[in-house]
Design goal:
- By secondary structure, the chain is mainly α.
- It has helices at residues 2-6, 11-22, 32-44, 47-67, 71-93, 103-120, 131-154, 156-160, 165-197, 203-229, 242-245, 249-274, 276-306, 311-337, 343-360, 367-395, 401-413, 418-429, 433-456, 460-472, 481-485, and strands spanning 507-509, 512-514, 539-542, 547-550.
- The strands form two sheets. It has a two-stranded antiparallel sheet with strand order 1-2.
- The longest helix has 33 residues, at 165-197.
- The chain starts with a helix and ends in a 5-residue tail after the last strand.
Amino acid sequence: KMLAEEVDNDQRARLYRLTCRLFSPFGFDSDVDVVGYVIYEFASRVTNYSFGFFIPILIATLGDNEYGDGQGKIIWGYTTAMCSITTVIMYLSSTPLMEFANLKRKALIGSCAIVCIAHILFIFCFSGSAVILAVLLYIIAKTMQRVGDVAFEAFLDVIANKKDPHEISSRCNIMGYSGMLGFILFVVPIVAIVYFGAKVHSTIWIEGIIPIVSVGLWYLNCIRYTFQMMSPNIGIGQPIPSSVANGGILSFFFSGIRVSIIEHIENIRFISSSLKDLGLFTLAFIFLAGAASTAVSVGAVLAVNVLHISVIYLLLAFLVGIVAAIFGVIVYKYLHSSKWLTPKQILLLNMVILLLCNLYVLQVNTVADVIVLATVAGSQVGAVGAFTRSMLSTLIPSHHQSRLFSFYELSQDSTSWIGPLLISSLAVRYHGDEQYRLIVVLVGVVQFAIGWPILLAVNVPNGISARIECDSNGDWRSNNKSIGTNNNDLLSDNNNMDIHNDNDDAEHVGSRSIELHPVNDRDWVSSRGLDDGIQDKRNVRASADIVTVLEEPIE
């Protein structure tokens, strides 16, 4: 913002203004952090093509070519189960450390880079013998994308400022689906050049490798704007504990696991005692997200290998579903802003309609049936993503967004392997396309039936009240809570202050800076607030008995 105001002729300032116009409603949003946050979804949502469409079909095809007809879909089921396990391991080892210093941003950048590289390396998966390589690349890319999503979601609270997180989350989903439509304009010429110019007619290349590599290139080209727009100091957390900072990579990894196990045990205790509605919401989506994950993971394979629908027609249905998702988010956003439906009521309605779509799969036999299914289901999926994320942001205490978002994602991925693994195991025993279809539907119905009543029991107003109470009580994990609570009077001259830290370096803004010195590895001062979107930075030096505010001019 300072750059745009003070250096009007600077090229980057002009780029910022242009980007804000492109990625905000009617070009009116000048908050570059929000715009950068939205661009991430525009860039990363295209991975839905690869993870839910191109890669499943490619691995199933390579598996059939290498091990015999019918084995590909079984390989894919086991692959998704293994991916869920590796994702849980990464959650345990890395995501708890995102609360410290600037690691949240670094995790987001690193995971995006790995996802892009893994997609590009699919160019070597052109024969049946490369099925193992394709499986490994998928597991790496999907796992890192999930880690990046945790970091991304944890930014929502600080990005939203005093704005409505439901509105920002809905914007993200709309721009994400718009990015998926824009990707079509990007990939079609590439496929046409390969098909007509290079005379490559192999379905593995045209329907698999070329689109997957194109996803990586699109992601890599677009994601850099996110990190250019978002402030490098936004969302900085507490100082890294010395026991972690002084070790090497292995120490960092195992310290992450140790910290994670301790933190998640504390998370369970804390949620069960003080954030019961957040606990119910998390428990509900263990089953509801599991049903959606199962449907996505086997949907493309079911359509191509069981229903024998052409990939071209399936891609058409996918595009129809994207348009329906954009329309669905807009409609449900309007219903929410008009006070007709609450976010919880929207999610309950979404799940009922998705359950009916799951049952309708038993009657799907033609391309028209697939398009109808994609239209109805797509109109609900976008709203589920938007309002799930924003509801979590309103239920999770502001100082623990990374940690509890990670706990939520961990709870989902810890069980998401059950559906695909169960389907693959039953498919080995009960052969036949109709049996496979029935197994997929029954597994989804059971998960929906368990999760929906639990979601109904969530009391959102009580959950928000509990979150506010937790915010007012400071850091519930600190052994010396008096540091975080007894100095409020001392700092009462500016209650709306924002304290950040990046190791020993203070962030300098205006005429003040912030430097946070830990008493020990687990005792620190952390206080965060907002004042009309303007962050007031102070230098707070903490000790066991005193907090001193140091003012110093900044050039």
